[in-house]
Design goal:
The protein is of the alpha/beta class. It folds into 2 domains: about 280 residues, Ribonuclease Z/Hydroxyacylglutathione hydrolase-like (Metallo-beta-lactamase, Chain A, 4-Layer Sandwich); about 180 residues, Rossmann fold (3-Layer(aba) Sandwich), CATH 3.40.50.10890. The protein contains 14 helices and 22 strands. The strands form 4 sheets. It has a 7-stranded mixed β-sheet. Strands 7-8-9-10-11-20-21 form a 7-stranded mixed β-sheet, covered by helices on one side. A 6-stranded parallel β-sheet has the order 14-13-15-12-16-19, with helices on both faces. It is globular. The N and C termini lie close together (about 5 Å). Its EC number is 3.-.-.-. This is MBL fold metallo-hydrolase. It is an enzyme of class 3 (hydrolase). Keywords: Hydrolase.
Length: about 475
């Protein structure tokens, strides 16, 4: 069989890997959006296909989890002629639906807000609808109609010669490692796609499974391949300390850029525990993201897939997320009105990297406020506003306006959903260095990959590859 790397090669986003079996059955593992890809509408559309392969010849898609850098181009796959199914866990299907519809709405908004005369707007709309650089709601409907859900730990036959098994990865509700087994020439070959690897004792999420079977080939993500998590305190202690300093000791406000799915739920659950179990001073909390509100309902619906601590909390308190002074913000008008709230408050809003979304307006409105603290709680890609703040940049350009950074900027990684270097090493060490034929390092910045590669070498793993975009391997 042949494995081709079409995404997340020496970068974090755009996970996409094509596995072609000897009997010509083709499996695409993840179909993520490259978050750095921008469309130049000044250029005329071409007849070039969106994907570097013929989508109509793909037989099956396997999805590790819902995040847009793993799922975001699935509607495009159907626009390009794919007719098969997408296999994933049930929570992944629910969360992916929310994310894809949200992306479609944003795409339509981009078209409606296009600058220029009506002729230019028509040209942009034609490009959207005909060429298919972006997708709309109908495309998402077509895609979601073909999702088929599987349970964890159930081996499922997908072709005459191939089987798949989903194993809990802990990174997000429903997130999975995927084991693919293939019978070729009387020999069983196996490959594990890590997806994104979670961390132990994370709020809400189950721990990554320790039951990873021995495989011949391993794809391992390396988002944190070059570093360890810094914060050793509990999520409750870390958040309590920051809230006390920023909203109680002084009449300030705390802005937390957070991804709508996963990170926001962990924060709301932790706040609920602070107020419920520690008698923490109630402070107004604004959760400003309709997507976060919808995905929180999915979490509440899937209690059996959360960790025991969360299930016990639910049994004792009847809700994981609802608490005094929490307000979900739905409309743009209500979002903008938060700026007029004069009392100490906490604002949780997307996006986590401050790369678009409502959080940008909150940052712009408060960046000059010395009584405001911006708390960064996760990974930010290089070049994003989150990355610039994290690296101490003194000025920030938001929507073409330059601001001096007078607000306090803090960061904690206790809410990062990614396992760190030690977690990644433990994941790889489930495999024997003598029996494992190759390790492929993916989904990380190149420096992080190289650091992790050197660490693996000291542990006896020597057949380690760091693929380039489009690179092929015969397995």
């Amino acid at each position: 069989m042949k494995l081709t790397f079409w995404g997340a090669t020496r970068q974090v986003t755009g996970s996409m890997y094509l596995l072609e079996l000897d009997d010509e059955f083709k499996i695409l593992i993840d179909c993520g959006r490259n978050m750095g890809r921008e469309i130049d509408y000044s250029l005329p559309p071409t007849n070039k296909a969106f994907f570097p392969f013929d989508a109509s010849l793909v037989n099956l898609v396997l999805l590790t989890h819902a995040h847009i850098d793993h799922s975001g181009n699935i509607p495009m796959l159907y626009r390009e002629g794919y007719e098969g199914q997408v296999l994933c866990t049930s929570p992944t299907a629910d969360l992916t639906s929310l994310l894809l519809y949200d992306a479609a709405n944003l795409n339509l908004k981009k078209v409606k807000q296009a600058e220029g005369d009506s002729r230019k707007k028509k040209k942009k709309m034609d490009r959207l609808l005909v060429k298919g650089d972006l997708y709309l709601q109908k495309d998402v409907e077509d895609a979601m109609a073909n999702f088929v859900t599987l349970q964890f730990h159930r081996r499922f036959k997908v072709s005459d010669t191939a089987w798949v098994t989903f194993i809990p990865a802990g990174h997000l509700l429903g997130a999975a490692h995927i084991i693919v087994e293939v019978m070729e020439e009387g020999q069983m070959k196996s490959i594990c796609f890590s997806g994104d690897i979670g961390r132990k004792d994370y709020p809400l999420h189950i721990d990554p499974s320790t039951e990873i079977p021995a495989v011949d080939y391993l794809l391992c993500e390396t988002t944190y391949g070059g570093r360890l998590h810094e914060d050793k305190s509990s999520p409750e202690d870390a958040l309590a300390d920051i809230i006390k300093r920023t909203c109680i000791d002084i009449p300030g406000r705390l802005i937390i850029p957070a991804f709508s799915i996963g990170r926001t739920q962990a924060l709301l659950y932790t706040l609920n525990r602070l107020y419920t179990e520690r008698g923490f001073t109630p402070i107004k909390v604004f959760s400003d993201s309709p997507l976060a509100y919808a995905s929180t309902k999915v979490y509440q619906k899937n209690l059996k897939q959360l960790n025991k601590e969360a299930r016990d909390f639910q049994d004792e308190n009847d809700s994981l997320f609802d608490f005094e002074n929490l307000q979900y913000i739905q409309t743009e008008k209500s979002s903008k009105a938060i700026s007029n709230y004069a009392e100490p408050c906490i604002i949780i809003s997307a996006s986590g990297m401050i790369s678009g979304g409502r959080v940008e307006q909150h940052i712009a409105a408060n960046i000059n406020n010395v009584y405001c603290t911006i708390l960064l709680v996760g990974y930010s890609s290089e070049g994003t506003l989150g990355w610039k703040l994290m690296n101490g940049q003194k000025t920030l350009k938001i929507k073409d306006v330059e601001y001096n950074v007078l607000a306090n900027v803090e960061k904690i990684d206790i809410f990062s959903g990614h396992g760190d270097q030690a977690d990644l090493l433990n994941f790889v060490k489930k495999q024997s260095p003598e029996k494992l034929k190759k390790v492929f390092l993916i989904h990380g910045e190149e420096e992080s990959m190289m650091t992790f590669k050197e660490l693996l070498a000291t542990e006896g793993y020597h057949n380690i590859e760091v693929p380039e975009m489009g690179q092929e391997y015969i397995l």
